[in-house]
């Protein structure tokens, strides 16, 4: 009997026990191994696939799930016997969980091994005065720089962008973690990023984006070539049953630069397994601006009656204008004959994007991509009526200012499948992207055709296509995340010739001795932007194969160790290896230290290998003339001893800390150093000596090719970039403050002048290009954003400090330091669901860069350089947005 009672009690307990099973996942639906499952009388941990089983008693009403790096979750028992538990990251909210820089799940920007900024684009788009992606990032990310350029051919239509003062082609862009193609444009008109090839961020509709992650660290070992400076990962929207619409209008304080923009986004569910499709359409119109210096100028006769130039004459505008007008009248001219159109280009932009997911069983088919079409109109240097070699008086008796028109098509699509292979996660995808850029030149002439010249020319263009196939496989063990993968990429680049009249000089004659001369001196090709000739036309491709391994190991609950290795083989540049080692250590629950070391590489782009062109530019002898870009394989390059291109290599170091002393305040501080060897740059203009005098021996080589100067790409310099980033956020109920600071210094540590060019160091790498690299972007950039919400109202006040920069805008100018400036943004919003009405201003106080010194202003015409905040001035806007839930 004494044994019967315990047995009966055990039977009764067993009868009232309940067995519970389930899975524990992160917010990306990946299993979490080693999570603790605790009830009042029992406990267990999850397996590698996130599954668990636990037996509960009748007294248990709930159980808890916990693990390092995630919020503890309490599950109340229901009639169900199988549960799916999704854990949220513990250090910050969901939209701060990052995908870039790690192949593990659940990392936040405060517990990654390398610095990552996370920007909620949906929130920024609602309140910010900026309307395109480049400008949005320019005003919220201290390490990011992008400026609109003026009178710079294609760079007026595609804004170059960079981080930490490095080149646009040293920044890799991803969409949903997949490589985005670059443009077909080579920046070659003396802008920031001169000689580089970047990615057109403005081809991606802002309304399609949920958030952007900016990895501020070298990542070649993780993502391959182009990631020397860092990575921008654009995460597309996945929301369903929501219609978003936004309409924005605006204008500058000077009444130009008018803007109209319409954004639409809609998502809906597909099937019963959580599938979705999210669709976006966006259209915008931005009018040109005029920022030429033409109010306090005098046009005068310099050296001969036929040469007229503009210059600063007096501080008395009325006296200048009267003298000017009287002088012009005596010559039979008028002031408008000399006005320049200088400022932002006119842009029409339209595009559509989609994001699709179709889960089934243990698999998921996904796809995303879109199409963007842009029409742009920029303006070249004005041709004065006094120069008969570039003008046709019967067509333009008062001279003319050419317009360069662009037609840009940008398209991309990614298709892939994810599949659960036991405990492994596999991902196979292909991404195809293409950028096509076509030029037209209007309001111009081919002077060599004289009266027979047309005034509009199709000048040809360029195109770049990239196809990338990826296979990635990963698995989470208890404390270890392993990932392996392979990538095969095809790059394809071509230049298309323009119509004959756009590039040919019909005044050239062949002499009896076989030499070519131009006895009339008439210029050929369409003025301002001569077309691409058949000699420029080319079609080249290459392939690249890469394999990588990536591991993240939680050595302890405090110590995280990360490593990556990558081997890549180029069909035209051989094999390169890169590696990365990084770590993060929790000194306490609120304070982390982290550091990383990596080496990287960047192969020359096909553009840099095969771009050639003859364009109109300001030559070292202070005149407008034809400047040629020649391939390194060309006879001209070989005659001058210009070597073939090779890859850039880099070493990256970073060290910093993150802290979250209280739940509503966090801060990160990261120092960095990046050494780049054999950096690819454009040479100076061969054909002239450092004093601007023509070198006859070189002129004899290049003049028959229609050029007066010759430039090439070269692995010309070594550089060192070092600095510090500070990011801090503070939230108190309805008030939020965000501070960002970047202090950055670029230095040239060495040059690589071929032995055959000794004595021509300043030509091989010019002082102008040196200044662009070392001081072309602000050494200090800081932003402080304050937002406050009261009932239905919210206000944004943002101040951005753009530190000093230096520019030498023209060959005959001087290095000018532009002082630091503060730009103030202000907006006020009122919400009446589902609508939000916003008014505000960018650059409320109408701040401009310093005026250019005379030597850098093209005889006083260019009042401001396109540096720091650009030349827009105050911009006022009004916006209405709608967020409407749908069934």
UniProtKB/TrEMBL annotation:
Domain TonB-dependent receptor-like beta-barrel as annotated: residue spans: 366-844
Sequence ranges of Low complexity compositional bias: 144-153
Family: Belongs to the TonB-dependent receptor family.
Residue span of region Disordered: 144-163
Record keyword Transport present: yes
InterPro entries: Beta-barrel_TonB (IPR000531), Beta-barrel_TonB_sf (IPR036942), CarboxyPept-like_regulatory (IPR008969), Plug_dom (IPR012910), Plug_dom_sf (IPR037066), TonB-dep_rcpt-like (IPR039426)
Signal peptide: 1-17
Residues in TonB-dependent receptor plug domain copies: 111-231
Designated name of the protein: TonB-dependent receptor plug domain-containing protein
Subcellular localization(s) per the UniProt record: Cell outer membrane
């Amino acid at each position: 009997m004494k044994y019967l009672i315990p047995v009966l009690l055990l039977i009764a307990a067993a009868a009232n026990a309940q067995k519970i099973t389930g899975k524990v996942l992160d917010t990306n639906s990946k299993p979490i191994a080693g999570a603790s499952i605790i009830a009042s009388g029992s406990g267990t941990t999850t397996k590698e696939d996130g599954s668990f089983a636990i037996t509960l008693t009748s007294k248990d009403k709930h159980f808890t799930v916990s693990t390092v790096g995630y919020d503890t979750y309490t599950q109340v028992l229901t009639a169900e016997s199988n549960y799916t538990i999704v854990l949220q990251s513990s250090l910050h909210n969901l939209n701060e969980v990052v995908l870039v820089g790690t192949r593990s799940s659940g990392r936040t920007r405060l517990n990654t091994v390398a610095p990552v900024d996370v920007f909620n684009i949906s929130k920024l788009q609602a309140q910010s005065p900026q309307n395109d992606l480049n400008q949005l990032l320019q005003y919220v990310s201290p390490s990011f720089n992008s400026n609109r350029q003026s009178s710079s051919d294609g760079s007026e239509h595609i804004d170059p962008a960079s981080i930490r003062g490095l080149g646009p082609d040293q920044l890799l862009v991803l969409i949903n973690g997949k490589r985005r193609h670059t443009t077909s444009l080579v920046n070659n008109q003396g802008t920031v990023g001169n000689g580089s090839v970047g990615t057109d961020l403005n081809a991606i509709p802002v309304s399609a984006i949920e958030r952007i992650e900016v990895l501020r660290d070298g990542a070649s070992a993780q993502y391959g070539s182009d990631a020397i400076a860092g990575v921008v990962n654009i995460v597309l929207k996945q929301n369903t049953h929501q219609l978003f619409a936004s309409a924005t209008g605006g204008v500058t304080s000077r009444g130009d630069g008018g803007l109209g923009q319409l954004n639409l986004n809609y998502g809906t569910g597909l099937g019963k397994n959580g599938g979705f499709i999210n669709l976006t359409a966006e259209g915008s119109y931005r009018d040109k601006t005029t920022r030429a210096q033409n109010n306090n100028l005098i046009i005068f006769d310099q050296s001969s009656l036929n040469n007229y130039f503009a210059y600063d004459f007096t501080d008395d505008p009325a006296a200048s204008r009267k003298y000017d007008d009287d002088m012009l009248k005596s010559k039979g001219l008028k002031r408008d004959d000399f006005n320049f159109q200088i400022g932002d280009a006119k842009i029409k932009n339209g595009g559509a994007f989609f994001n699709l997911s179709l889960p089934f069983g243990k698999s998921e088919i996904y796809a995303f991509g879109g199409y963007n079409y842009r029409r742009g109109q920029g303006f070249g240097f004005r041709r004065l009526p006094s120069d008969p070699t570039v003008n046709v008086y019967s067509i333009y008796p008062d001279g003319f200012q050419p317009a360069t028109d662009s037609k840009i098509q940008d398209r991309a699509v990614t298709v892939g499948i994810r599949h659960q292979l036991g405990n492994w996660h596999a991902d196979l995808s292909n991404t195809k992207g293409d950028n096509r850029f076509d030029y037209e030149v209007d309001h111009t002439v081919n002077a060599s055709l004289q009266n027979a010249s047309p005034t509009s020319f199709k000048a040809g263009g360029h195109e770049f296509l990239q196809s990338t196939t990826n296979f990635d496989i990963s698995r989470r063990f208890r404390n270890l995340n392993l990932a392996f993968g392979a990538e095969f990429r095809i790059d394809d680049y071509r230049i298309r010739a323009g119509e004959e009249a756009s590039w040919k000089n019909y005044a050239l004659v062949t002499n009896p001795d076989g030499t070519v001369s131009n006895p009339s001196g008439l210029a050929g090709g369409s003025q301002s932007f001569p077309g691409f000739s058949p000699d420029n036309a080319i079609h080249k491709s290459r392939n690249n194969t890469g394999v990588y391994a990536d591991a993240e190991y939680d050595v302890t609950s405090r110590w995280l160790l990360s490593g990556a290795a990558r081997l890549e083989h180029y069909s035209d540049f051989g094999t390169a290896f890169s590696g990365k080692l990084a770590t993060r250590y929790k000194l306490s629950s609120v304070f982390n230290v982290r550091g990383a070391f990596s080496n990287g590489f960047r192969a020359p782009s096909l553009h840099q290998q095969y771009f050639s062109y003859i364009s109109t530019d300001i030559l070292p002898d202070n005149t407008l003339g034809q400047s040629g870009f020649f391939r390194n394989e060309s006879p001209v390059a070989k005659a001058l001893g210009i070597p073939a291109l090779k890859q850039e290599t880099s070493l990256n170091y970073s060290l910093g800390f993150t802290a979250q002393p209280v739940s509503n305040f966090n801060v990160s501080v990261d120092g960095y150093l990046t050494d780049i060897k054999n950096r690819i740059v454009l040479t100076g203009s061969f054909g002239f000596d450092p004093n601007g005098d023509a070198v006859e021996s070189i002129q004899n080589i290049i003049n028959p090719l229609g050029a007066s100067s010759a430039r090439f790409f070269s692995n010309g310099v070594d550089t060192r970039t070092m600095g510090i980033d500070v990011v801090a956020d503070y939230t108190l109920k309805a008030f939020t403050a965000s501070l960002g600071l970047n202090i950055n210094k670029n230095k040239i540590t060495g040059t690589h002048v071929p032995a055959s060019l000794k004595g021509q160091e300043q030509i091989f790498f010019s002082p102008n290009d040196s200044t662009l690299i070392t001081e072309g972007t602000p050494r200090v950039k800081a932003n402080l954003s304050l937002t406050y919400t009261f009932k239905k109202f919210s206000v944004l006040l943002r101040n951005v400090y753009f530190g000093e920069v230096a520019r030498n805008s023209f060959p005959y100018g001087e290095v000018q330091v532009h002082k630091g400036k503060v730009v103030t943004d202000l907006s006020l919003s009122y919400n009446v669901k589902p609508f939000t009405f916003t008014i505000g201003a960018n650059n409320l106080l109408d701040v401009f860069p310093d005026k250019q010194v005379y030597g850098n202003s093209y005889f006083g015409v260019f009042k401001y350089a396109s540096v720091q905040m650009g030349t827009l001035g105050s911009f006022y806007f009004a916006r209405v947005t709608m967020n409407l839930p749908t069934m």
